[in-house]
Give the backbone structure.
Amino acid sequence: MHRSNLLKLQGMTLQFGGLTAVKDLDLEVQQGEIFSVIGPNGAGKTTVFNSITAIYEPNQGQILFKGKKIERVLTRKTVFFFIVVGLLIGFAALLLSVNLDQLWKVTIVRNYRDIAHPFPWTKALNDLVDFIGKKKSVGIFWGVVGTLLGMKGAYAIFRRGIRSPDLVAENGISRTFQNIRLFQNMTVFENVLIGMERKLKSRLWQIILRTPRFRREEAESREKGRLVLDFVGLTDNPNHLAKHLSYGSQRRLEIARALAMEPELLLLDEPAAGMNPTEMEALNHLIRKIRARGITVILIEHQMRVVMGISDRVAVLDYGVKIAEGTPSEVRDHPKVIEAYLGTVTK
């Protein structure tokens, strides 16, 4: 059965100062498979997850989801926003230049002497017009410089958020974490509803006024939340606080919250950690059910019983480098994998 490529990492390298956490990593995950990433502690597994979900930005290489990068698109509205910000900063620079030209200490003290009064905009604008009339070249200089700096600053902020966790989630990738990150003092049901927040389309004013559209979305979300809890087997205690659940149930709740985002790709970071054999078997069954719903799963796990029991393919990392990839049986017998886990025998 042919599967299309869903996630592709090409030459991904991530460094923290002088430490290379992941080096020149190539991975391809196919639609509908369960793909596991394993390796000794410190091998860079969670770093790979953090890079995929935009918590970290790789130094080199690229991450493609469904054949393209997940990035914010530079639209006309965004460019218009840059221009508006630039013009406002340019105007502020002009006002500042007037103050600087007129013995700025005296002018600023006079303008801000009594903060109970509103800023004297009429006087400031008149001063600005007079200033430009007398020193047009200086005024143009400050206005242009301020506008350009404002536009550049707005663009720099845009670039910093060009690939962010919320954008990755909106595009269909959700995850759980190695350390449980539930809202412990909220109920099981509320934790799942939070996972649906990014799917809501109602505006702020519609939420405040509780319009029919918002009430309809709220009812749909609650119904979907009940279905998700039923899917992971947590319908018995939806109103219990998350912190009162057993450790295994908390892990399931994290998976439920991730599923509430309706992802195409689900990243599970050590979901079997701390589970007993019975809970592990139930987890295996749940992951298979998730895959049966058409959701692709990437799994980080130390429990080889879980990895070898459910994975279609496995990649092995050691010190940030991929040393093996293949089916569970191929990886299990690979010499470099045995060496990474057990070491070598010295004579």
In short: Residues 173-262 form a domain with the Rossmann fold fold (CATH 3.40.50.300). The mean pLDDT is 84.
